[in-house]
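Re: duplicated header lines in exported structure tokens

Our pipeline writes sequence and tokens for each protein into one text file. With two proteins the header for the second block appears twice in some exports. Here is an export where it did not happen, for reference. First protein block:
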Amino acid sequence: MKQHLVYLFLAFFALSGCGGGDTSEPATPNPPPVTPPPVTPPTLPPPVDTESIITALYDENTSLEDVSRFVRDDGVLITRIGDRGRDRHAKDITIQDHYDHYLAHYWEFRTARIQLEDHVPNGQSLIRATFITEAKLGAREFRVWFWGRNTTGQFHFNPQKEEAKVNPNETGVVFVGKGTWNEDFEKISEEGIQHMYTLDIVNKWENGGQFQPTLEPGMNMEFEVSQFLLNPPAGARLNYYGTSFVYVIGQTGVAPFEWERGVENQFGSNDGTPIPAKGLSGGETTLGYNYSEEPAGRFMQMATNLSAHNAQPFVEGRRVHHTNFEDGSHDERLDNPIWTEQVGKLGKHYINHSCAACHVRNGKALVGDVGESLEKWVFRVGDVSGNPHPLMGQVLQPEIEGAGVSEGQVTLGPWTELENGLRSPNYLFSNGAPPQFSARIAPQLVGLGLLEAVSESQILEWEDADDADNDGISGRASIVEDPSNGVMRLGRFGYKAGTFSVKHQSASALNTDMGVMTSMLPEPDCGSAQNDCGESGAELSEQNLDKLVKYLSLLGVGARRDYANEVGETMFADIGCASCHRPTMNTSPFHPLAELRNQTIHPYTDLLLHDMGPGLADNLAEGSASGAEWRTAPLWGLGLAKNVMLGDAKANDTISLARRSDDDTRIGYLHDGRARTIEEAILWHGGEAEVSKQTYVDLSAQDKTALLSFLESL
């Protein structure tokens, strides 16, 4: 194996690109950014072996959460999954129906834990389903075998009461009533949970009361658990539905599924069919396709394989993500209660009030208008030497709580229109431009846990810092210090791979974006000349930080559409894009979360730093990344971004974005949103990607269309 090299230095600063200076007339009296003088590159130290200085985040000594699918000692297949309450069913398509959005009080008594015991491989026609709810149910609904003939929520069997006992020779299902978990699943007595319901599925019930008398391996069984609360402990709403899952009999786990709308199997079930491996961008975390006409919600869903014990932490972590740290309000619905514990934790200096304020529906922010304050951007700043700015620290925080001196506002200046039809941004700083800065728009959040779960050794296999193979690609690892213990880690997250874990990324955003301190980063971002930065010490509890991390780590990744069309995919590889946007990774067996272990994923990144040329360079280094170097952006979710960011007819009004005729040009690709389309993003590639970019330019119109269609399918 070739030696992996890294230069442990602050690389010289690239001086051209979006951060270099404002070449247009300012729209306000504020002075435009000033291009700093060239900085002499430092003498490079000798290269060292990357693997020798990086400490793995997870290894064989890591404490692991329990697996959620396994074969019991008696040969019975066990599958355990988590679920949440929903307004409607997965295939409801009227404008009044909502499946993908979140309910009021969604974190209070509205999750479920489900276990399937599959006895079919043992020769017995039996699947025993047990589910636990956080609150007592009135009607206990466990729908099995989807039909959909009269309504889009219709299943062949739908037991209503635990007292119901039905002859299996007539229905194919026996409802057993209140039951108990196996001892190896949950210690019910310790948790005090009593709301358990069990049913036995013994036949496949089909249309007109017919049934297939024996369950067989390979059958698709679609099911849905609904929660009709007897007396809701929070909120007034009683009736909730659940996620539609497809279980393939004889296989552990549930499958992301596709379904052909409008096709009715007159004499049988119309259950969904598992999406082939080619479409499973996030492995078993992948979401099934959306059939409720709500594409805006694709980045907000639970991983399909969410473990039963993680349903409640997931929704509680989501609450952290959506909470305003100034007044404790929740950003989605007026009927969500104030979280008094979080009131007043907003920092003295900050950018926005909550995580979700910038990451709307977990997607990127829309590009602002000229003259608009950039409240969803992060501006990393430095002095002439690249050290933290004395009046701003490492990040410009434009908002201030109470009295004090503001670090200044940033607005978008007139775009510089280039001869090739591209544009580059200019920024206006109310307090004067810092000598060095880097502008970053809020990125999308899906897939973070899976990228964290990829082993360091796999990523370092692709490192080639000195381009030893002479292919023009010299990706290298970002090296990041762990603030908890000082060891060196592999950087994975952020536009320049400046953080090494989901927890590190979350703590960094809380610290600089909201001014909320955590145990990992307990000191406010403060310049050497500032004296009003606020107090030190953790404010967000470790428990709530861990729940936020779990939520972000376990978001499901949208499935690839049009997975059978390989023309554009082949073109993508042929012109060299896959040299950096690597299609496939495998996660390690050592990640703490069972959902993320041993997954084959398709993120289209190598997580390495690459020199992208002067066109995309700014003039501020970050860690071991120079101003011209950027982490290869993952491409999963690329084709879903427009719907997520612009919303759809069913999106809740309080989180919908502006509806304007030019919204589709404000999607904003690349680190600063300058590219209005995927093609513009390609045309901005330079440096190590220059050859691939030029090859794309020389393609026929037909081949370009094929390649872009492939990217839209991701």
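Second protein block, exported in the same file:
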Amino acid sequence: MTDCCDHTEKTNRPTAGPSSDPAHAPPAAAAVPVPTGAQRFRIPAMDCAAEESDIRRALTDVPGIRSLNFQLVARTLTIDATDEALAAAVAAIAQAGYKMQPANAPAPSGDTHGGHDHDHDHTHDHGDAEGGMPAGLPRLVAALALAGLAEAVSFFAPAGLLWTLVGMAVALVAIYLAGLDVYKKGLTALLKRRLNINALMTVAVTGAFLIGQWPEAAMVMALYSIAELIEAMAVDRARNAIKGLMALAPEEADMQSADGSWTTVALAAVPLGATVRVRPGGRIPLDGTITAGSSAVNQASVTGESLPVDKTPGDSVFGGTISETGELELKVTAAANDSTLARIIHAVEQAQGTRAPTQTFIDRFAAVYTPTVFVLALAVAVLTPLLLDWTWLQALYKALVLLVIACPCALVVSTPVTIVSGLATAARRGILIKGGTYLEEARSLKAVALDKTGTITQGKPSLVDWQVWNGADAADVRRIAASLAGRSDHPVSKAIAQGLADTNQALGTVDGFAALAGQGVQGRLAEKSYVLGNHRMIEARGQCSPELEAVLAGHEQQGRTLTLLAGDNGVLGVFAVADTIKESAREAVAELKALGVTPVMLTGDNITTAKAVAALAGIIDVRGNLMPEEKLTAIGELQIRYGATGMIGDGINDAPALAKADIGFAMGGAGTDIAIETADVVIMNDNLRRIAETVRLSRRTHAVLWQNIALALGIKAVFLVLAVFGNATMWMAVFADMGASLLVVANGLRLLRSSKVPPASMT
């Protein structure tokens, strides 16, 4: 393996575009679209950087290729090229020895992993159709048994040519069963002067056989192939963590026909605008808007929320979620291949094609490491007989052991597995991270800027306090104010009407109702005139007093909007409306502080209101009255002052700041399309605590990555020394190489064990 895998970079923030999902499903899936003229192929044998390098080299001389996008864990390659170049590329890949098929082709029988053929490079099929015993395992077990028999012949059979020939024949059969594919690929690589694991194993096993170590050659090939099978199955687990989300959506839906009857049809046959029915306990098949019925909907598969959410007519629902308590009818708003769930999966798959900083480092290191060890092996074979008085056979054997150790697969495979495991874990928690770069770099955040409205607060006003005045009767004040407010469409009036709603008290009849622009409303109830207006309106009526002004000032200092009910004889009641903070805001701010991340509020609202809301959330650094361009400037100032800075927002005015920040976070439920598309991370359920979870997951992922590097390099270093100066054998070298690979893959998969990241800070 003489070069590194350099996936086409896809980490640039996407341009804004429309979304068809009324629930603001993240259009991040379109953030890395397959370009016009591009085709996506599944390459079953491509699950290591060695195979990617082979394919990339095979396409080097094909003109007309615009871009290549490799996804090792998904075993897919997207080729953007002219029609002629595409045909030439397919032929070149086939000539290099790799089977491929369109990514949307039907899954072959025996496919256990979400529609992917698993005719693996080294070990053929990974599994049977039932997902039980891997299909290639019996053949490899037979190879291992024959290798053991060859070892037994070598140790216990009488000396003589006949038994030697018998043992060699048994070893050859074992090598054939376990390593035919390895030899095919290895010889192809050697003929093209390439160093990869196939070439190294081909040379090592052949050399061992020729110097009389045929039992060990057979055992090495059998152990290597079995380890490769196990490793490939472990890699599949990371991929299936993402693909498994797709199984959450049912395959069929009950759709209403034109005559009003209900028929069961495949999801792909359900058109936009159709009405579908979901029974209690059933999975919602597609994204839609409820037209009839109500239910508690479990949205954990999409938003990561642990508790069901009550849904009524007019509310949006996601495909793949569960209607737990009631029957629903809904109007379909997104096709099956464009559902929120499908787009999340596609976005995460595209994200795994981006290259995290650690992966870039590993690939560069691998490009130097492999040829260096190969040169060292040559030096051992040629120089040690002259310098250390070793026999030529001893020197050659030690050199072959070094070749087995030389492959850096443990290093290169652990990085994508760890990154994809982290992306999948985040997706389970309702955190859509658009690339491995952002997953890894979130750990470095030193400050996070938060928009106020819709991010820290609910984004809509609500009645937070009210009181009677001048000794008025509370029930009368409540009834009159609710009656007047209920006739108005103004958001503040709606908040008052909703806050005063009382099912045990009937509203009064309002005569002569009129809305007074910029002031409030007026009307008559029981032949008496009343107004429900703002502070300015009451002052103009001459009905303010020093005592009332003091009460109003106290509310205004808390950032509340005040509305007063007054009659001809004076003020009867005071109503305070405010945009309340989210329940998660205070906890989220505390968690960020515990992680060493400084929260800062940036808002276009007035500074008095901003400070009042910030105090409730626990934020000290507050900046108000900001225009969009001023938010952009503020992000630059925070980057200078603190270092890496994130931005959390949900509106169009937040988009410039989201793009400027080191990592932009968008609220996926309340956020606008442009904010969601511009951001690097989308929080699906608008829970601010997910920001701290992202930072913790990033730190944990980074820790696992460097644990893997230490494991792989440490094991390699020990066996390199043993191979040259100790008594390391070839099968020990196989255990060192493949054992290290399995260890780092298993370590990377630890990120999948729990969908909830522990609250403890991880460095």
